[in-house]
Structure prediction request, 253 residues.
Amino acid sequence: MIPISNLFNATHATLLEVATNNGELETLCLSRKDIEQWLQEWDISGEERSQFLKSSVDAFIQSDQPETAYHHTLSYVSSLPFSSPSPAIDAIALALRLPSLFDFDPLFKLDAVVSVKDHELFSLLQVFLKSGLPGLESHPAALEKYELDRAQLGRKIRLLSFASLGFAHVGHDLPYSEIASILQIELSEVEKWAIDVFRAGLLSGKLSQTTQSLHVYRSSARTFEREHWEALDKRLVAWMAGLANMLEIVISA
Prediction:
């Protein structure tokens, strides 16, 4: 009798190949969540699990769907042992190439990715998590070696730097001059970049040409660490204090 796992892999491979070759991969509705569920339900080895995930990634790459491929790549890399650094490096390169990907935290938390901490691409990844434009300029060799678009990465790091600056000023006015300094742009370009960061969903706020400032309503943190939890705690305490004062006014009215 043929093992169920072998039938599973053969069927999956055939479906992927046929759908990919005919440009109909989307008809399979291969969501990351569904695939994770299937892998839990089927009795297959760790190696077969990785092969399944790798074939899904390759199919989406071949079908010119890099964003979807990246999300499946996270599952694939997490299934691998630490002795397989190449897929982790490829995952970092793919993440950096995607122009609309700004959340690198899930990638950074993968054990296989952390295991390549001495690699030049891991160092570049840290720039997008914790640094700014100067950090990007210090990795010219990696950009050339992995054929990374300097202009695209420059735009991405500026938007992330903008969001980080906004996160530190939620509920307050952020001067155009400070934004221009951090992003290394002209003062006249601030509103253009503000619109870009709004559209990217990284920050929301209100621009004021009169005061030359941006009032920040909400902003995203690149990675949520202890300092961000502490900042959030302070905001909640201030919000609760304000709510308590309003309640006292209502009661005494």
In short: The chain is about 65% helix and 5% strand. Residues 1-7 have pLDDT under 50 and may be disordered.
